[in-house]
Amino acid sequence: MTSSIRLFAAAAIVATAGLLASASTSPASAGWDWLGNKNYVNCLQLFASGDFLMPANASRAQRAARHEAGRRYCNRQYYGHD
């Protein structure tokens, strides 16, 4: 019984150490590096807050679809993909 508890504790320590060793401390690896691209951020803000070319009686779903299309446009312009 005690040997299985020791084996489990050792496995938990090894797993925790492996997880901590594999974690990256670089802030860019967290996926926020696009914030440094000011033109891209401005493009996103334009499409997120602007209602230009939006019909006056557009539903919430239509507005969301237009905003998503704007986000995809910005991705294509600055990163070459959707």
Automatic annotation (TrEMBL):
The lineage of its organism: Bacteria, Pseudomonadati, Pseudomonadota, Alphaproteobacteria, Hyphomicrobiales. Residues 1-30 form the signal peptide. It comes from Bradyrhizobium ontarionense. This is YARHG domain-containing protein. It comes from the Bacteria. Keywords: Signal.
